[in-house]
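To the structural biology subgroup,

Please find below the input and predicted structure for Ribosomal RNA small subunit methyltransferase A, which we are adding to the shared reference set this quarter. The sequence is reproduced verbatim from the submission form. If anyone notices a discrepancy with their own records, reply to this email rather than editing the shared folder directly, so we keep one authoritative version.
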Amino acid sequence: MSARPKKSFGQHFLHERRYIERIVSAVAPGPDDFLVEIGPGEGALTFPLLAAAGRLTAIELDTDLIPNLQSRAASIGELAIVHADVLTVDFTAMAHQQGVSRLRIAGNLPYYISSPILFHCVDHAAAIADMHFMLQKEVVDRMAAEPGSKVYGRLSVMLQLACRVEPLFDVPPGAFRPPPKVDSSVVRLIPLSSDARHDADPVRLHAVVKAAFAQRRKTLGNALKQLLDADAIRRADIDPKARAETLAPADFVRLAKVAVES
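Predicted structure (tokenized):
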């Protein structure tokens, strides 16, 4: 018996087989992987991933879905279910507890909290090998946007400073029950190696990026005046009259470092 999707949880259950197979193929799970699925729902991705890897940890907030997942998984593999809000899950601690260096994470994310989940995962990027997520297409477009694009912004900068962002393919509304009102996309995120990561203070970097994009039409000199004056911005080799949408992610790292010095 199919579960009734709950609007309060932003549930849209993927059901079309060809897209399920494409996602599983993109993840390409192996027997040595420690997989974590965010929001398994009815198990459309859970069971094929579990069959390929032999074990999987699923994070599910909706208690009504858990019994069906447990009973169906019994003959497939080792399924551990964590009943929790994913934003409270410590992925770094999970990797340590399981005795693995890095997790592989997948999921059809609730669209209304997708950005907080992405930022939460980025906070644990050192413990994550890769992520494969289904998201609203507009969000994936912003994640992968380049400087100068109308959709380039805070999400683009913060994710690209932590991960390689690879949009994979789009998924139409009809592939879900109930159909969402937007198109969806599958994206792969691969955390950068330790030597490729930025060395700016993360709190300061976040503050600079947030302020820079708070009012996109403002110049950096005006947008950042609470954090940096024009001379400090110039010390980062950036024109104070430039706008945030024209800067590459690495430019924000330099601004964050100058902000610490000021």
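Summary notes: Strands lie at 13-14, 35-38, 55-60, 78-83, 103-108, 128-136, 163-171, 176-177, 184-191. The radius of gyration is 20 Å.

Regards,
Lab coordination
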